[in-house]
Structure of Integrase core domain protein:
Amino acid sequence: MKSSRWRWHLDEMFVKINGERHYLWRAVDHEGEVLESFVTKTRDKKAALKFLKKAMRKHGCPEVVVTDRLRSYGAALKEIGASGRQETGRWLNNRAENSHLPFRRRERAMLRFRRMRSLQKFAAVHASIYNLFNSERSLHSRPNFKLNRAAALAEWRGLCAK
């Protein structure tokens, strides 16, 4: 897989479901595309390990894993045997932190979540739609940006027509 040689940014965010705190674990590649999202009730080594195994099963093993300083990541990566690939730093994980913003906007518009299952489904669908339509505006000229946007819209309409 081509994504196996990429840099992954891992982060977790707090999401309230009926007043109870849950954690949405997310893996973002170096281009800002959301690779995987996973909802748990805990924020420990077991949850981090389950999330990492799920992401690696689907996308292969990354070259570098950038995380915040949560110790669960280090413990999970050590158990997998990839502790040498972990990087932590003050601003290294901004790619993952900034990927939470569109999700938070949609979450507020939806007036939060009621069940863990609906959060997991929404996170997966939101990531795939966001990945399709989000193209770095600053990297393309206006005509190319419009062509890419039109292609994404045509693909979306094709998917909806099936």
Q: What stands out?
A: The chain has one domain: 2-134. The longest strand covers residues 7-17. The two ends are 27 Å apart (CA to CA).
